[in-house]
Design brief:
190 residues, alpha/beta, 38% helix, globular
């Protein structure tokens, strides 16, 4: 799928003066926002003020190939949980054929879970030496628009309800399954 950038790359430092970053337990960063060096710097500078226990989920996005090595390294240094698909992980870990090895190499860089979504197969979760495939629910796929974003939302919602990482991945799978099983990319249309 080809996508283009837009307003998400116009982040301003003043926006973060209106909130206290340390009040938040979880953050979602999309690759769309990280493509522009200035926007990435603004967001990552703000995240430097978060509590050390706060979760940061980085959703690589189809724009991953346009994110600079410097920004990627800064994400790694922030111990982000990485969520990506098979195409996106190839940009993060080129030249390695095994998906398991790619996930382990990313874990070594972030020291945080790596979640590789694999469509109807489910999601592969790597937490260092511990890895597992978490199956998705069986649904007839109608439209994949919004599946990745929905997965991330379900995953973060699960973590906010004190689910384990594995349980939160299952939650993300289930909610994404609901979205791909309908024409609309919104659960509000159900």
């Amino acid at each position: 799928m080809k996508t283009v950038n837009g307003i998400e790359q116009l982040w301003q430092p003043d926006w973060f003066k209106k909130i206290n970053i340390s009040d938040y337990d979880a953050f979602y960063i999309s690759g769309y926002e990280m493509e522009d060096e200035k926007a990435a710097r603004v967001i990552l500078d703000a995240l430097d003020k978060r509590e050390s226990s706060a979760v940061v989920l980085f959703d690589a996005s189809p724009r991953i190939e346009y994110i600079s090595d410097e920004t990627i390294q800064r994400l790694y240094d922030n111990h982000v949980i990485i969520h990506c698909n098979e195409d996106e992980i190839d940009h993060l870990v080129p030249g390695v054929s095994s998906l398991e090895l790619k996930c382990r190499q990313l874990f070594e860089k972030t020291h945080s879970p790596v979640i590789l979504t694999l469509g109807k197969q489910g999601a592969y979760l790597c937490e260092g030496k511990y890895s597992q495939m978490i199956r998705s629910i069986n649904v007839k796929v109608v439209n994949t628009l919004g599946a990745g974003d929905t997965f991330c939302g379900g995953f973060l919602a699960g973590l906010s309800q004190d689910m384990s990482v594995q349980e939160a991945v299952q939650e993300g799978n289930e909610i994404a399954g609901l979205v791909v099983g309908q024409d609309s990319g919104s659960l509000l249309d159900r």
